[in-house]
Specification:
With 158 residues, the protein is α+β, with helices and mostly antiparallel strands. The chain has helices at 2-12, 19-53, 96-101, 103-116, 126-141; strands at 62-73, 81-92, 146-157.
Length: 158
């Protein structure tokens, strides 16, 4: 009879559900909801912030003035030889501010290359070689910005 009572209690009482499993399921559901809501909120607000901060990149080539460069040329005679050079850069794929931020590097390239050159290097088609060398060096230095041409507006050797 004791055995019958135990089997009757077992049949009458339903199996107890674990509260631990229920709490874990509710926590997982809450976590997924919070992550989804946070992702949606970030996507909505981050997209607006990026749209405001992105400068408009000019796809058409434009000219940027390089300040006048005065440099001494290499001279084996001991007599100083100076060059005065004013130029423009034709660039594409950047803004005016981005190019102007790189201007000290561009001026350094002009100064260092001219200082290494002699007056004989610039005679004849030496100005063309100078332009090609400067164009190659500047293109490497300000690499994400496409430099299309270097245009000399003033070139004076004294």
């Amino acid at each position: 009879m004791a055995e019958e009572a135990e089997t009757a209690d077992a049949e009458v009482s339903p199996p107890k559900k674990s509260k631990k499993k229920l709490v874990m399921l509710a926590g997982a559901l809450l976590g997924v909801t919070l992550l989804g809501g946070g992702g949606w909120y970030y996507k909505q607000h981050a997209a607006q912030a990026v749209k405001k901060d992105v400068p408009v990149v000019q796809e058409e080539p434009f000219l940027v003035d390089i300040p006048t460069v005065i440099s001494n040329l290499e001279s084996s005679s001991g007599r100083p030889v100076f060059v005065k050079l004013t130029a423009k850069l034709q660039v594409r794929g950047a803004t005016q501010q981005q190019v102007m931020a790189q201007m000290p590097e561009v001026q350094n390239i002009f100064q260092s290359y001219l200082h290494e050159s002699s007056q004989a290097d610039l005679n004849g088609n030496g100005i063309y070689r100078l332009r090609e060398a400067l164009l190659a060096r500047i293109a490497v230095q300000i690499a994400p910005i496409e430099v299309r041409d270097v245009l000399f507006t003033e070139f004076l050797i004294q």
